[in-house]
Prior knowledge:
The complex is a heterodimer. By secondary structure, chain A is an alpha/beta fold. Chain A is 35% helix and 23% strand. In chain A, the strands form two sheets. Chain A has a six-stranded mixed β-sheet, sandwiched between helices. In chain A, strands 2-1-4-5 form a four-stranded antiparallel β-sheet. By secondary structure, chain B is an all-alpha fold. Chain B folds into two domains: 32 residues; 211 residues, MetI-like (MetI-like fold). Chain B contains eleven helices and no strands. Chain B starts with a helix and ends in an 8-residue tail after the last helix.
Amino acid sequence: MTTSAVAVSKVSKVFNPGTPGQVDALVDIDLTIAPGEFVSLIGPSGCGKSTLLRLIADLIEPSGGTITINGKAARQARLDQEYGMAFQQAGLFEWRSVEKNIELPLELKGWDKTQRRERAHEMLELVKLPEFAGHMPWQLSGGMQQRIAIARALASSPSLLLMDEPFGALDEMTREHMQAELLRICAETHTTVVFVTHSIPEAVFLSDRVVVMSPRPGRITQTIDVELGGDRDEDTREAGGFYEKITEVREALRGIEQPVVGGVDDR
Amino acid sequence: MTSRHAVATVAWPLLFGAIFLALWEAVVQIFDLKPYFLPSPSSILEAFVDNFGIIWDATVYSGTNALIGLIAGTVLGVAVSFLLVRFRFMTELVTPLAVALNAIPIVVLVTVFLNMYGATSDVPRRLMVTLIVFFIVLVNVAKGLRQVSPTHLELLRSYAASPTAVLLKARIPNAVPYLFTALKIAAPASVITAFVSEYFGGRDIGLGRRIPSNFANSRNAVAWGYVLGACLLGLTFYLISMAMESTTRHRRGAAPGGGA
């Protein structure tokens, strides 16, 4: 049996334990992701999907349970830069040019200058923005900035890409284009992806598996296999199977008891 | 396009200034205002040119105090802000002190310094400027070092960056514009502090003392000449801080030629 790309076992996370502000963000999470798999985490606000992603990234530590990445403990995996990460904000360093932004993780890994420059240009080819190497971030549109952020996340060739609503701030057209680009890039680089999103069509279009989560306390309620094949393009969005899966995910989300705090449910 | 824009930026204020001076001159002439009430711009300019040597000396004296205080205060402010970010507990010690010192009319401290260093020393005035500049720089730079985007911090953590790397790659670059903002406030403040601190005793060779002493001797046009010198000094300090700030403008994406 091959080592799983991500293995989350009996993980829980409690914020502010022992205080009146205690929050059970996640309870009893089990999730195993195979190498090369694309898995989306979806659920209403407060279901802990971003928290789960941050636990996998070792940006925060679990209150209980274990997480491994490629067989390594999450902390060791972070220290070895086993994964790349992208957020809703592209988070480019505004005082660095585009290529210098992509070089940053390599800089911290101790690559020399020529290697870094070369790699940055390869990554710019990959995200199809080679002519923007010397531009400053503010000169780029939101979609272009996000592509640079993806290039940066993949610069050190990590086997795992962790993404927290990376296309959440983009308009619908750019968003669909970026989704297709992401699938192409992941196919070319054989990257495993854990992708947090609010959008049902986005989750279905991108994923091999959609993990549905529910809040209070955050837990996994259902896992849906999306069998749309590996070769997805714009036509996939209009295929019958696509709608069936969207309906399936939507119903799984409907099944989640909506919190009544804060008034009437407007769905 | 850019050069035309630049010309327009300079031309309009200049034109406005010229009209203002012409009106001033006209009002003085038409209403026959006495020089002790308001001298005309032409007589001020004449007094300025005639007394250029002594006005220059006074300007250099006050300007030197301001500049030394500005540099010392900036260096100290930057140094302490690094300490504050490195040792969190220091923030709790220094912040109340900073607030307290800013709440009192701090310039009166110059009398304390004069008592310590003697009436002929320039140290009290320079110390006063240093203190004013120090707090402006400290507050701003500490904020710049601390208010790094959470996304940047998470990214750096994901790259397993050391605290030193976080300082070099995120905190310091983030604080640079804050430093220039601080200097833009501190530069004119240093000149004002240098003037005002001259009122509390000590040698009477600076602009701050020459202006009232000339008024007291009814040499009004000359006093106004000193005022002109003071304006030019303040303007010089401000322009230098603006020029320094513009060296980092490219990174924030401000519109080229955009005003202050």
